Amino acid sequence: MSDFPRDSASIDSSKKLDELEHPAHSQPANLAPVEQRELERLLKKDRFSSLFTVTCAGVALISDGLQNNIMTLTNVIFGQLYGKAYTSAYSTQLSNSLTVGTILGQFGVGIVCDIFGRKAGIVISTFAIVAGIILVTASHGAHGSFTGFIWCFTIGRGLTGIGVGGEYPSSSTSAAEAANERMLKSRGPVFIMVTNFVLSFGGIFACSLYLIVFEAAGGLNANLSTVWRTVFGISIVPPLLVFIFRMRMVSSKLYRKGAIQKGVPPLLTIKYYWKSLIGTAVAWFLYDFVTFPNGVFSGTIIAHLVKAEGKELVRKTAEWQLLLGALALPGCFVGAAIVNRIGRRNLMCCGFAGYLVIGLIVGCAYDKLINVVPAFVVLYGLMQSFGNLGPGNSLGLVSAESYATAVRGTLYGFSACIGKVGAVVGTQTFTPIKNNLGQRWTFIIAAICGIVGLIVSFFFIRNDLGGDLAEEDTRFAAYLEAQGWEGHIGIVGKEALIDREQGEKR
User: Which among 314, 350, 334, 366 has a CA at the least distance from the CA of 458?
Assistant: First the structure.
């Protein structure tokens, strides 16, 4: 909640809403034949655009989930292919390359999709993902150089990360805005299912894809180099599959009316949203600090516990990893079912409390649990399920609902990229913690993060979310006006014709 009073009587909200719906830059009343045809085309697109936007966001974010989880088993395969040459430093480098790219994409594309529109961010993200996957799949070092191969792979993953990061603000904000138009009361559950659920499903998708390709390539006689390159090659399909549909979408009604495409006041924005920004950014940092290293290195952890060698180790690890991914999914369903009943903030607190309880159980009983692989995997999966239940489900939703349309992409992207900074820090410190303090401490530290997450969520996350996003736009516009800002709110261009036409019909 901002320092600015949200129920200020000094601002005429209805006047501001009228200004938003009928901006000074509106088109002339009489349209030329070319403009009339363009308007008819846009109106036809607008009828189904919100449905396309929500559906395609879900499919596209499956791709993001796949890219986030694909390195889990790739690390195991590279360990088999390159032996001691593939050190923990190289493993961390390849895993972090995606995350560093994601940080750049989240922040950069977040700004782009606020100024130029959600579709512009989506196009940039798709091209980056496709180009990155192609580079990774074809990775080689000059004259067979292993170091050259690693760096080629790293650059490709970094480029993929820019696209993956860009999908967060562009896809998620557009999905929230589209759901607000189509299904206001169920926006929260729908948003969770097309964002966090499909991102989490990416882990199962990655394991299933690896197992299918592994068996198709000959199972225990498979060429592991062929296996991982085929898996990465197939992963290019989902982003390309939905691209043609996403090009048919038009900007949401919220964006058309509430965008500030020129002269966004950054200081006023921070002054208004500082408290919410601390909540979403710090909570996301803590969540990614725990969940990303545990996801990236879970395959390596399980591989050390499974009694198998060579290619059989790859298969067994993938099977246990598949179970681990499946155990994490119920948290998504439960969270989607109860988010409207208990509220966003309370749901987030429940998830962080699960980190505290399960993290302490696994950490304190680690020496006994490692001798019983099924029990270890189940508890490990429950911890990840609690992560999905709370912060995994809530962070994207809260970041989309806490901020006005004009700055939603930027502040969502900023919060998410601070989260990925947490992922980088967590991934970089995971191995030193494990080597110097022992594996149990990776779980105990997760429990500590759970405590801090509870505190941050309770004091900095708003508990009045869930209403019409247009109301937040009105409050933010009123605040800017009260502070003397005189910029233009609403898009200028062809898509502005849609709302003018609909306004005239009313």
Answer: 350
Phi and psi, residue 162, nearest 5°:
-60, -45
Q: Residue 400: which of 54, 101, 162 has the closest Cα?
A: 54
Q: Which domains does the chain have, with CATH numbers?
A: 13-505 (1.20.1250.20)
pLDDT, average across residues 255-283: 94
Nearest to 167 by CA among 264, 46, 58: 58
Closest CA to 499 of 15, 46, 155: 46
Q: Mind spelling out the 3-state secondary structure of 212-245?
A: HHHHHCCHHHCCHHHHHHHHHHHCCHHHHHHHHH
Does residue 254 sit in helix, strand or coil? Answer: helix
The secondary structure of 62-96, three-state, reads HHHHHHHHHHHHHHHHHHHHHHHHCCHHHHHHHHH
- The reported pLDDT for the residue numbered 318 is 79
Q: Please name which of 122, 101, 124, 121 lies closest in space to residue 112, comparing C-alpha atoms.
A: 121
Containing 47, the helix (H) or strand (E) segment is: helix 33-82
Q: Please tell me the distance from the alpha carbon of residue 76 to that of residue 56, in angstroms, as a whole number.
A: 32
Q: Are 42 and 500 in contact (CB under 8 A)?
A: no
Mean pLDDT for the chain overall: 84
Percentage of the chain beyond pLDDT 70 is 85
pLDDT in tens, 138-188: 999 998 899 999 999 999 999 999 999 999 899 999 999 989 988 888 999
What is residue 386's predicted lDDT score, i.e. its pLDDT? 93
The predicted model gives 344-352 an average pLDDT of: 96
Q: Is the pLDDT of residue 375 over 50?
A: yes
Helix then strand then coil, in percent of the chain rounded to 5, is 80, 0, 20
**Burial (CB count within 10 angstroms: exposed 0-12, middle 13-18, buried 19+), residue 229:** middle
Q: What region does 397 belong to: left with phi over 0, alpha with psi -120 to 50, or beta? A: alpha
H-helix segments, 365-486: 366-369, 373-387, 393-401, 405-437, 440-460, 469-482
Q: How many CB atoms lie within 10 A of CB 388?
A: 25
The closest of 154, 182, 149 to 46, measured between CA atoms, is 182
Where residue 426 falls among pLDDT bands split at 50, 70, 90? Answer: confident
